[in-house]
Known about the structure:
Blueprint (H helix, E strand, L loop, with lengths): L6 H24 L7 H15 L7 H22 L7 H19 L4
Amino acid sequence: MPALSLAPVIYLLAALAEIAGCFAFWAWLRLDKSIFWLIPGCLSLICFAWLLTFINAGFAGRAYAAYGGVYIAASLTWMWLVEGSRPDKWDIAGAVICLGGAAIILFGPRE
């Protein structure tokens, strides 16, 4: 398993994979794109799940909980860069709080 210091990189890659996979479904169902968007979408979601297995958190639930904060920040970045809607101050404040919580969950001292 990669060292805990690699967790932020793994989480960022996982977030990109999850958001891209979910967006493929969004595009198919909400933007009238071809059903073939689901092929890379499903592969991307498989990659997302596989990447999370590299988090050295001891318990899956802890790895997933910490990932939640990264997902929120990455989703807002996606909204800005891909969908063209800039996050407002409340989006940013919420993401910072969630990233702080994720850091506490992931890097907090354990007995």
